[in-house]
Prior knowledge:
The protein is mainly beta. The protein contains three helices and 15 strands.
Amino acid sequence: MKHRIEGNPDYGDLTLELEPDETILVESGAMSRMGSDMELKTRMPGGLLSGLARKFLGGESFFLGEYRSPQGGWLSVSPSTPGMVMHRRLEGDHFLLTAGSFLACTDQVQIRTKFGGMRSLFSKEGAFLLECSGHGDLFFNSYGAFLEREIDGTLIVDNGHLVGWEPSLDYRIRGAGGVKQTLFSGEGLTMEFSGKGRLYLQTRTMPETASWLTGYLRV
Length: 219
């Protein structure tokens, strides 16, 4: 399968060229255009319980679109928010994504909802993550531009800017400073990552954008 990413860093767009009988799984509603020979089915990876967890706990769609063509074909997909599209090749490893970041993957990639532990209940990203594993191509998106960081030590992150990370990294929830700074600085709780691995951030967050727009609304 060949892929081409255009429009980064502002409006990422992914085009996929499939060989005969190749299959790609796409986030529901993300397809923007495709060749007339493409076939579409819906798939619920992992079954009913996994689909329910992905929808209500992981912030993703209940169903994924399954695209293929016996003769080979192409389709293009776009994320729902303006930003970048990124590609990661999985070779039997695992990768963790926050809610709303998944865009597409080949059908050899397994997607399951993972509980982040009690500490994740205090994270802006929610208590559940998407764990992607297997052998294949994974595509994910950001709101705004991507920032990729290689960590060998520690890094403190405002968790609203978090997109995904390698499971070799561990984290803990902590305040932005003392009690006063945590409560009144506007930063609140943060995530302190430690270990060695790669982490992806986004330059914008949807809650902050919504808060900014609220000031322009008229009742």
